[in-house]
Amino acid sequence: MSDINEKVGKLLEQYSEDINKEIGETLSSIGPTDLREASIYLTTAGGKMLRPSLTVLVSEAVGGTISSSIKPAAAIELIHTFSLIHDDIMDKDDMRRGKPSVHKVWGESVAILAGDTLFSKAYELVINSKDEIKSNNPEECLTRVNQTLSTVADACVKICEGQAQDMGFEGNFNVKEEEYMEMIFKKTAALIAAATESGAIMGGADDETISAMYNYGRLIGLAFQIQDDYLDLVSDEDSLGKPVGSDIAEGKMTIIVVNALSKANEEDKKRLVEILKIGNETGSCEEKYIEEAMEIFEKYGSIQYAHDVALANVQEAKQLLEILPDSEIKQSLSLIADFVLERHS
User: Which of 11, 171, 212, 342 is the most buried (most CB within 10 A)?
Assistant: First the structure.
């Protein structure tokens, strides 16, 4: 494990206990038992807690407190978990975080209800956060809560739009890079941006700082997804938890595929589409086809291109942190931006 991975791992652990406690208390009153257990299931399955930790970190970085941001942080994690449950149902994925998916354990109907419950509980958490804001101005407290609710609602709509766009890309090999970037912003980066923006709002930051923190989250969120595309081809199976090249094997559109198709000559483009169609139609393809696609990617520099785009986003995100006063928390946010590129899974 690299030094950055180790440091960020320890950093996220510092906040995980409080966030998990808040989530546990929020979900403990759900009934009946099956719905409660299905709702809690993934929240205890060992996620990194990156998004909610960013909410707390940004709040502290702008002068806020952990107590004022812990409920919105937990809300962000519940929304993330809700999206995973519903994604697994739509994608027919049987495993999540090394465990059977919620719908495999409790069935699709209960899984859908569990996702809906988490979604609703997230809003309840944000509303209840008004009692934790240290301010003598009730109007200011209400404004912060309303702004955070608006941020969370916007992210939820974008997640759904992004998932719909991603589904629409299946079998479509004419996707442009700007379309792909819009999709990953909505599906992945929007919630990370909401996490950092919520932290700034609840911490009492001014509008300029709130905007900067939103864009910091947006940029590292984009880099996070692009790095996933990159790791699928350059990492190893043990780190990934799935076979290398599985995106190719499933015929998925990634920034690497989009870039290669935009640059390739007619012969290479036709062959790459043929390989992707095999994966798209069957859900798998032979190793020799994956290797052939990799050769095309290498020929046009598309793998390196993905890494360069992710790096540029991270560098821009770190520049946005200059609006914050110098502190250990600011350094931690910079470290997390680096972690997005240093992680191996």
Answer: 212
